[in-house]
Amino acid sequence: MYTKKGVSTALAMVMLTSMLAACSGKSGESSAPNEAAAKPGAGENASQQKQLDPVTLKIMVPGDRPKNFDAVIQEAEQRMANTLNVKLDVVFVPWADLAQKTQVTLSSGENIDLIFDAPWLHITQQIAAGSYAPLDDLLKQYGPNIIKNRPQQMWDANKFDGKIMGIPNGNSFLQGRVYYVRKDLREQLGIAPIKTYDDLIKFAYAVKDKVPNVTPFIPAGQDVTQGLSEGAFRHYWADNKEKIAPSPALPESLILYTKNNDGKVYNLFDQMEPMVWSWIQNARKLYQDKIISQDVLAIKDINDPAKQGKAAIVPHNEFGVASDVQQALKSANPKAEFEAVTFINQEKGAVLTNSLQYNFIACPLRAA
Predict the structure, then answer these.
(1) pLDDT tens per residue, range 355-368
(2) For the chain, which domains are there?
(3) What's the chain's Rg over C-alpha atoms?
């Protein structure tokens, strides 16, 4: 979330298929697997189980269709052929169009069995609107492995009004945060490896002065990726001494925020937090100095200029550099290369977590 995110989503889809077959029963198009089929060995042997009627599950996920993805689907369908008998129709939606496309899909009642959603997208609103099926009972009956493969604290932290309304699409409590930095330009300019935020900004100014036709810095400007804006992104770094972080109510915004792990939620409009204000002022100065792209709000996907070799620094929710971005960049310029730079405090115990996940797989309800 589909590059590196796409691989994890594809694996999640395969793992979720047995539960999804049960979900499809709510539409009246197919019946849920019987208990013997869902639990091989219960009753007849797995090899003697009755083959179910064929059903196609339509799945909507973000990103571009990964290379060789058809082979993944083919293998999954072959493994399910003699039991669940499921075909997978996977629809990929560009990240820049994700919010609008999924909103229209859900509001129109389009035939979708599985859909990606998130707190930073519209999962809370869709749950309130009754768009998604509760999954507690389905998981108990058809998804014991899904439950087992996620820590209990993850399930406890990611319920909505006490119910499981989506499968947490992750297996850790910390997501990587890095800047993609053009290593070839850094070396060309004679700049040492970047170790601090000040180093990063000095590199950005050097690019502006000496490398024409490359924008020094392109943070996110679209609403769906506002957590990658330069003001908000700063809270991940080690110099955030007060451990300021977005609240669960607005996970991509610092308007409502927590700090010092004190259990309170603060409102930026009640009293401006000095550190947050310094991040805002810094981002404004970078924009005024034409370090940040002057068209930042018009850029739908920051990966596009990155892949085209037109950006020197781009923020990302990764631990490294996504292979599709790196490959596209090298296709545009074989000598170009991104390196991942992070300023997260990586000492043991330094990073706090509330176990919340930012990506989910949900099962839409629709009229029978």
Answers:
(1) 888 889 999 986 43
(2) 3-173+358-362 (3.40.190.10), 178-341 (3.40.190.10)
(3) 23
